[in-house]
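Lab meeting prep.
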Amino acid sequence: MDINRLIIPMVNEIIDVARYNAKREIYPTKIVGNRLASKLLGITKNALNQRIHRGFYTEGYHFKKKSARIYEWDRDALLDEE
């Protein structure tokens, strides 16, 4: 049996958990604005806007509208979608 087949998935899992934990430490629990939310997700602001309009994110769970243009995002809900 090839040892790489066993080690690589385990290393990838460790890296994913470390990234998740680092993002939880760096970003606040409530993220105001699409720019910072898109940075957390590693996507462009336009890609985030497309996801909003396609219904990928749910108002009340992923975000709350503070005004017509300002969204307050839930960090943990976003990280769970990655």
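Slide two material, second protein:
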Amino acid sequence: MAISATVFFLKNSGKFWKATEFVHSDVGYYLSGLAEILKKNKYTVNESWIATLRQRNTEHEEFLKKVRSVTEFLKLCEYDATLNIIFLLSNC
């Protein structure tokens, strides 16, 4: 992935922008290094923050279940193209 992204940016450089510096990076490598540093320094996070993240994740998963069920329902009904899906989803 990193190689193809680098080739893309090098290939398009000069067409859309004029790059003055190129930085080769990999998100996974950065996060792995960050985790090691935080672990080495015994960094801890506020438990309420973790609880909030878990709650939001649960809410998001429930929302996705509703969207999937509505989508499946619409496929079964062979819905009309004039149906207002935004209105339907907002009232689930």
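Talking points for slide two:
The mean pLDDT is 76.
The two ends are 38 Å apart (CA to CA).
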